[in-house]
């Protein structure tokens, strides 16, 4: 188990407010080698936890005496940290197991947003869009949030594809789900799609419900990632676990960079089969929400929303000149508002 030994070791930790040594060792318990096994504990695992609690309790006393310190953190303690610290102070393995079953091991015990590039990286302070940032897509947002709430409540929900032109707010809409209570999201980088199986195996053990976010998805139909993702989306025996819902954005309705020709059934059977195989991936997403391009009126409304006030006639002209070579979109509206402010 990796433990802090000196006060300098504490500076790299994301500690909460309060006595730092106790919370540092509580975090070590959430990161312990047996933390994942503790989700389904056996007598032997409980023995290991008990032994480590006894050893860490003595170590905590030594560190507090050798290096008395005031609070180093700025945020409130997370319930997982408080419960792990209480289990440490009482040397109660069952209490620690209960905390891990409720909150999951580190980093899922403490954080809600993650990035996966082959390794999992927590995002302690994700940049969230304002709740009122998107203009003109109220129906899409309502459908997206309704499906998300069903999923969070344990009811049937659909894998979701947000489709539309660049800059229309698809990624903003997806990330806005983090405003909902209980949402956890893992953003998967394109180069890590081939490693999804291991990630899903890990996520499937957690007590949480998580969104797997695939942003700006555009695949080669002959590439490994295309066939890999299609198999995971209910096309094989090993699909996503029931506590994981896929959420993808794309500028391409069928998620592929090229489709070739569109043969008719009965003509060129091999080409027809290839086309159907290509289209099958997008069909795995049960909920498809379209984000159409902005018109001029919606663009000006979005600029005013970002500025937080109505536009003057001169500002409308400036905003339209700003979009002249860029087109109308939510992204351009946000940039125009910065230009005018």
UniProtKB/TrEMBL annotation:
Pfam family, one: DUF815
Top-level taxon in the UniProt lineage: Bacteria
Protein name, as recorded: AAA+ ATPase domain-containing protein
Native source organism of the sequence: Thermus aquaticus (strain ATCC BAA-2747 / Y51MC23)
High-level lineage: Bacteria, Thermotogati, Deinococcota, Deinococci, Thermales
């Amino acid at each position: 188990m990796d433990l802090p030994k000196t006060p300098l070791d504490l500076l790299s930790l994301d500690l909460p407010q309060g006595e730092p040594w106790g919370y540092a060792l509580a975090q070590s318990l959430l990161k312990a080698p047996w933390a994942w096994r503790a989700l389904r504990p056996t007598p032997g695992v409980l023995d290991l936890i008990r032994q480590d609690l006894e050893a860490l309790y003595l170590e905590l006393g030594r560190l507090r005496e050798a290096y008395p310190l005031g609070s180093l953190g700025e945020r409130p303690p997370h319930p997982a940290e408080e419960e792990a610290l209480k289990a440490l102070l009482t040397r109660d393995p069952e209490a620690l197991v209960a905390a891990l079953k409720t909150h999951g091991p580190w980093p899922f015990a403490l954080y809600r947003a993650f990035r996966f590039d082959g390794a999992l990286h927590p995002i302690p302070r994700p940049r969230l869009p304002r709740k009122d940032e998107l203009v003109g897509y109220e129906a899409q947002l309502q459908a997206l949030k309704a499906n998300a709430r069903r999923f969070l409540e344990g009811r049937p929900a659909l894998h979701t594809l947000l489709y539309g032109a660049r800059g229309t707010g698809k990624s903003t809409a997806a990330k806005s789900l983090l405003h909902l209570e209980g949402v956890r999201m893992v953003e998967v980088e394109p180069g890590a799609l081939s490693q999804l199986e291991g990630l899903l195996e890990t996520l499937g053990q957690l007590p949480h419900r998580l969104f797997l976010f695939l942003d700006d998805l555009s695949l080669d139909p002959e590439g490994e990632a295309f066939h890999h993702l299609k198999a995971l989306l209910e096309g094989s025996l090993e699909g996503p676990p029931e506590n994981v819902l896929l959420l993808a954005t794309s500028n391409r309705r069928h998620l592929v960079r090229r489709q070739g020709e569109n043969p008719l059934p009965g003509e060129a059977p091999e080409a027809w089969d290839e086309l159907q195989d290509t289209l099958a991936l997008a069909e795995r997403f049960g909920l498809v929400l379209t984000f159409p391009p902005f018109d001029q009126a919606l663009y000006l409304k979005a600029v005013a929303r970002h500025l937080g006030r109505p536009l003057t006639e001169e500002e409308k002209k400036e905003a339209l000149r700003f979009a002249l070579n860029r087109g109308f979109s939510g992204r351009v509206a946000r940039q125009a508002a910065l230009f005018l402010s």
